[in-house]
Amino acid sequence: MIRAGARFVVIAATLAALAACHAAEEDAGPAPVRPVLYTVAKPVETILFGPFAGFVAPRYQSEIGFQIAGRMIARDVTMGDVVKKGQRIAALDPVVTRFALTRAEADLADAMGQAENANATEARQRRLMTNGNVTQARLDSAVASRDTAQARLAQAQANLQKARDQMGYTELHADFDGVVTVRSAEVGQVLSAGQAVATLARPEEREAVVDIPEDLVGAMPKDAIFAVALQSAPDVTATGKVREISPFADQQTRTRRIRMTLLNPSDAFRLGSTITVGLSRHTKPRFPLPATALFESDGRSAVWIVNEAGDSVSRRDVTVAERNDDRVAITEGLKPGERVVLAGARSLGEGQRVRLADKPQ
Asked: Is the same domain home to 88 and 178?
């Protein structure tokens, strides 16, 4: 009887413990459902480099100025004017050069008189020498005077030609058909020889000039053909090919200037126009994702995929083609339309129940 009573007590205690556990489970309720953010996997078959803002510039341009010093009294053009070859750009006060021309003409007349007199003297001395009336020394002196007078005549002629040229230098003319892009001097300003008055550009060969961050220059394909569009009219486009890459970055902006030759641009691409430059390249289909969606496990890259019902997640190994601090590109392991968890990848588990946000990120 005593043993039977002990057994009954043990069985009763066990049943009581099981009932308590069952009651605790009922009180705890089901496991909590975790809310997650997600994005829909969409394949991309093109890579876009850019876009970057820039402007249209001439490939060839010249700073033009007067060859002599003086005070500018006229300026016939301003920025944006189209000029023809030979057209006057500006003019200097001609008073000083006119005085120099008058003096050179007078010096030439004096040198011509001295040369004629020296020639006549040499001729007389030579005739007298023939008759023995003068010494050889007198003839030699006359010959030397004649040669000196001839040299002074040549010098006077050169000075006169120089004065005439400088008289022509008081007017500045365009050497080629072009467009005035910079105005560097004003009427009344005293200029030194060679000081820039204006900058004249050749419009027939235009370039796209853009500043690209230094860290992106290495990824830029050097032989690619870029698409160039006007910001004021995006439908107006042209193509550009890289011609020059600045070897040094700007100290303040840390960008490098890129010059692209525009290939057969329309007249709408005027000098100074603001443009947008970019490049699209076809590539193997890939799925761009935020870097937070990716996690490493057992030496492999993986993501969490939400099932079709949207109530649980499963792990999926993937192949990463590119990655940086913010984005990754997946080439294998995903299908279009699949939902990928964006945040909390390290705290999820296989088959864990989740609750999706209303809209994908």
From this structure: yes
Which residue's structure tokens are 């070897």?
247
Q: What is the DSSP letter of 353?
A: B
Whether 154 and 212 map to the same domain: the answer is no
The pLDDT tens digits of the residues spanning 258-314 come to: 899 998 888 889 888 899 988 877 777 888 888 888 888 777 888 888 888 878 888
Please identify, among 283, 314, 338, the residue that sits at the C-terminal boundary of a domain: 283
Angle at which helix 95-131 crosses helix 136-168, to 10 degrees, equals 160
**Residues 245, 117 within the same domain:** no
Residues for the chain: how many in total? 361
Q: What is the pLDDT of residues 108-134, one digit of tens each?
A: 999 999 999 999 988 888 888 887 787
Q: Residues with Cβ < 8 Å from 134, sequence gap 6 or more? A: 125, 128
At CA 309, angle to CA 307 and CA 311, rounded to 5? 75
User: DSSP 3-state assignment of 237?
Assistant: strand
Domain enclosing residue 321, as ranges: 34-44+285-356
Q: Mind giving me the DSSP string for 300-312? A: EEEEEEE-TTSSB
Virtual CA dihedral for 310, 315, 317, 321, nearest 10 degrees?
A: 50
Q: Do residues 185 and 87 share a domain?
A: yes
Do 207 and 237 have their domain in common? yes
The answer to whether position 26 is within a domain reads no
Name the residue type at position 303.
Answer: V
Residues 65 and 197 in one domain: yes
Question: SS3 of 48, please?
Answer: strand
Residue 219 pLDDT > 70:
yes
In terms of Cβ atoms closer than 10 Å to its own Cβ (0-12, 13-18, 19+), residue 295 is: middle
Q: Is residue 224 part of a domain?
A: yes
The answer to whether the beta carbons of residues 328 and 289 sit under 8 Å apart is: yes
- For residues 31 and 20, what is the distance between their CA atoms, to the nearest angstrom? 19
